[in-house]
Design brief:
Blueprint lengths: L15 H13 L6 E2 L14 H11 L14 H8 L10 E4 L2 H10 L6 E6 L3 H11 L4 E6 L5 E2 L1 H10 L3 E7 L11 H13 L3 E5 L15 H4 L5 E6 H4 L8 E6 L5 H15 L7 H11 L1 H25 L5 E3 L7 E6 L15 H9 L6 H13 L1 E2 L1 E2 L9 E5 L5 H18 L2
Helix pairs in contact: 2-11, 3-11, 4-5, 6-7, 12-15
Amino acid sequence: MRKNLVWAWARELKYEIREIVELANQIKSYWVNITWENIWDPVAKGESIPEWMKKIVIEACEKDSTYWYCPTKWLETAREFIANRRKNLSKDDIIFFNWLWDAINKIYTNLSFDARVIWPNPAYSTHSSAEANHAWSEHITYSLDPNNWWNPDLEELENKVKYNPNIAWILVVNPDNPTWAVFKKEVLEKIIDIARRYSLFVVFDEIYEKLVYNIEDRVILSDIIWEVPGISMKWASKDLPWPGARCGWIEIYNADKDANFREYVKSILNSKMLEVCSTTLPQAVLPTIYSSPEYEKYRLQRIEKYKTRAKLATEILWDLDLISVVEPKWAFYLSITFNTEKFPSSPSLAIENKDLKEFIEWKMSGLRFDKRFCYYLLASTGICSVPLSWFNSHYNWFRITLLEENLDKYKSILQTIREAIIEFSK
């Protein structure tokens, strides 16, 4: 082409969680059975949707109104329902989005070009990709400390805010992905105070807040926002579970406190209005599902199941000095960090199929340690996990899920991973 069509930061638009699926599908052609541990989908892992929830959806589908366009922001009944469950929130402070990337993309792309975001390191890749797309520049991050239960380094955060006047807002992911930490109220309040003192706004990604194991750890933005402008991101697809619904929204706090922030929120809404409407069915049923007496019981049952699996995984892996495991405080995932100094310079796993071994070792060129392990694990055992150094992280670590419904199979997966780590160290 006479003109270069690809901008310099296109390389940042990656999503390893799904990219590894392409590799797994290639490995399937070598007659390897794949165990999918790469992505959150409890339904694909065998979790049954309860009959009471299905009934609510079926009844909604029988109404003609479920099939029409919905307003840009959201259905009125759903917005009123959510606003009534929050402090300092009206229905007009809620904007619905079709899925998480839809919301994230709009809150980044509607920032002025020179306004920057400071966000946690490690960080969920959808945020990091969106910020790179917006800023065309190196990321600005604050550290989460694995030796302090992944709590944020608040001194580093404040210093970077203080000496970088282009920072416009602070991103907090709580419950955090990919560390699985849940931050205490006093930590979150200190972040809000930093935003207050330096005239910033905050964005809290809270899409997993209903899945925190211990209720006393659950603190959401509406509880602590004070007078600071802020946005909270929610995603009902995680709560129900209904990944195929792609259903989420943002809650806007204190837009009346700052004219510039209010104009920014208006630009988000205007860009959303270009899409005509959002999906109707999930919105139509959410008030009925959330207010059902069955929902809270169901939510607690799910939490207990994942909590039990998190504890089991920690028990099976904790004594290996080759790795570090911090027991999750919420939901679906477990991260395993390598103590790389205990491994050889070019570790590997046995692969019986010679053609597959040649293929996977050809793919290894230039890969980081954790990605190398995940590729070998996939080819050797069929377990598809996610390398986490790609999550804007200098750690060598990887992720599996806690979703497997068959407990015996889940234990077998963990034992296989344990044995693979040991072999990888030889």
